[in-house]
Specification:
The complex is a heterodimer.
Chain A (H helix, E strand, L loop, with lengths): L4 H12 L15 H5 L3 H15 L14 H13 L1
Helix pairs in contact in A: 1-4
Chain B lengths: L8 H12 L10 E6 L2 E4 L2 E5 L12 H14 L14 H14 L3 E5 L2 H12 L5 E5 L4 H9 L3 E5 L4 H9 L7 E6 L1 E2 L4 E2 L2 H10 L3 E5 L14 H4 L8 E5 L9 E5 L7 H4 L1 H4 L6 H14 L3 H20 L13 E6 L2 H13 L2 E2 L1 E3 L9 E6 L6 H18 L6
Parallel strand pairs in B: 3-14, 5-6, 5-7, 7-10, 10-11
Antiparallel strand pairs in B: 1-2, 2-3, 4-12, 8-9, 11-12, 13-16, 15-16
Classes of the chains: A mainly alpha, B alpha/beta.
Chain lengths: ~80, ~400
């Protein structure tokens, strides 16, 4: 089954929910740094989980450009279908 | 108008709150006098040092000291120049010869620090379109070198052979790849399964670098490091190391058998754009390295000390990061930042210096009191360290395992 942004976004929300310690409402506009306040180790775990979910590589040097969950979904969709 | 320092306010506040609890500052300690590799005066008190990385106790070796003094007299205090201009003296050549002999390699390149050796190698060896694959728990100098270069950076879960294999398998087969491993991971003192990891890296056509900063001097038949003990010397393309641990001075290096290795002297910016090590430093390093090659008794003594401290602390009810003594680093787990600082502070007042380590330097948010053993620790010093850990736990109100 092909993955599209529409299938990827809900999956990402599901992977991120356990890291949502502040219990905020997650959406594609949620920011990793200012809303979720994820530390670098948590980000590392999340990245590894996303990589394994889609059998892709999400290079570390791409991460600073991805501020929101929506931007992450775009990036994953691009890599999965690239 | 914004004060650029405002972004550090949370760190300033955290430190102030910690010090307000009355503990000594673990990151602002002064060694007033240093008597030997294992003893110093701190806050006017005689203190046993067990957090120095001075594994082989070479800092006060008489031959090492004499070589440094002679070089200071004959070549002056410093080179005032880059290795590629006026900063390569006879001593820099000699220490590179000593390294080639110690490692059995055809090339050796000396940097001004170990940090710069990693910075230079990572930033230079992999370019745009190429990949660096590194362990998640890699040292800051490796991460910083990756950030300085243009390669795509891929992390794998700490010491997971399967995770490394999986990630390498997802990369384009034809792309250049550098797998970065460390022999000993310095935070927890655990060692890497290098035999399996190097085999996986080679299966995917990657070049391999192993950082032996915390393994040089006492792993393997010649003291080369964990990679020698694992029997993978033929498959490791680069070994990175430092003079600031077992060698007992300061400086960094990369050794290799690659026929094109010498080009790095022209293209590696952290090698080119900085002053070379002072003549006294390279002279002490060369003498120390030559002695380390034959330091079989010291190696045995160091391993004995490490096992004794590990089993002693464990028997008293402390939780240690590794099941057995895997290296000369014994990391004691603490329940949190305040407890860790209280315990550290109690230890320093009892005359024992260890390293306090906390996130983000530590993995998984751990707070640690890290001990690094020295071959020059006497058995009775190790007994005293264990006794004082027990006393400090009582003072700091830390409960021990039954």
């Amino acid at each position: 089954m092909a993955h599209t942004r529409d299938t990827i976004l809900p999956k990402l929300l599901e992977l991120i929910e356990p890291l949502n310690r502040k219990g905020i409402a997650l959406s594609e506009d949620t920011s990793f740094a200012s809303d979720l306040e994820l530390d670098s180790l948590t980000v590392m775990d999340l990245v590894a989980n996303i990589e394994d979910e889609y059998d892709i590589i999400l290079p570390m040097n791409l991460l600073p450009e991805l501020e929101t969950i929506g931007q992450l979904a775009d990036a994953v969709a691009k890599i999965v279908n690239g | 108008m914004g004060d650029l320092f405002d972004k550090f306010d949370p760190i300033i506040a955290e430190k102030a709150a910690l010090l307000a609890t009355g503990v000594n500052d673990p990151f602002n300690l002064v060694m007033e006098k240093v008597h030997s590799p294992t003893e110093a005066t701190v806050n006017g008190r005689e203190t046993i040092l067990v957090g120095t990385y001075n594994y082989m106790g070479m800092t006060f070796d008489p031959n090492v000291i004499a070589a440094g003094k002679q070089a200071l007299d004959e070549f002056g205090a410093g080179t005032t120049g880059s290795r590629v201009l006026n900063g390569t003296y006879q001593g820099h050549r000699e220490v590179e010869e000593a390294l080639k002999d110690f490692y059995g390699t055809s090339h050796a390149m000396v940097f001004s620090t170990g940090y710069q050796a990693n910075l230079g190698l990572m930033a230079t060896m992999a370019a745009r379109g190429e990949y660096i694959i590194l362990d998640a728990d890699s040292h800051a100098s490796i991460y910083d070198g990756c950030a300085m270069g243009n390669a795509d950076i891929v992390r794998f879960r700490h010491n997971s052979v399967e995770d490394l294999d999986k990630r390498l398998g997802r990369l384009p087969a034809e792309a250049g790849k550098l797998v970065v491993l460390e022999g000993v991971y310095s935070m927890l003192g655990d060692i890497a399964p290098l035999k399996e990891m190097v085999a996986v890296a080679k299966k995917h056509g990657a070049m391999v670098v192993v950082d032996e900063a915390h393994g040089m001097g006492f792993f393997g038949p010649n003291g080369r490091g964990v990679y020698e003990a694992a029997g993978v010397e033929a498959d490791v393309d680069f070994v990175v190391g430092t003079f600031s641990k077992s060698v007992g001075t300061v400086g960094g290096f990369v050794v290799s058998n690659h026929p094109k290795f010498e080009v790095l002297r022209l293209v590696c910016r952290p090698y080119v754009f900085t002053a070379s090590l002072p003549p006294s430093v390279v002279a002490t390093a060369a003498t120390s390295i030559r002695k380390l090659k034959h330091a079989h008794n010291k190696r045995q003594h160091l391993w004995g000390n490490s096992r004794k401290l590990h089993s002693g602390l464990k028997a008293k009810g402390f939780t240690i990061a590794t099941e057995t003594a895997e290296s000369a680093i014994i990391a004691v787990l603490m329940p949190g930042q305040e407890a860790c600082a209280r315990m550290w502070s109690a230890l320093i007042e009892l005359g024992v210096y260890v390293n306090m380590a906390r996130p983000p330097a530590t993995p998984a948010g751990m707070f640690l009191l890290r001990c690094s053993l020295c071959a020059e620790h006497r058995a009775e010093q190790v007994d005293i360290i264990i006794d004082r850990f027990v006393q400090a736990a009582e003072i700091a109100g830390i409960s021990l395992n039954a």
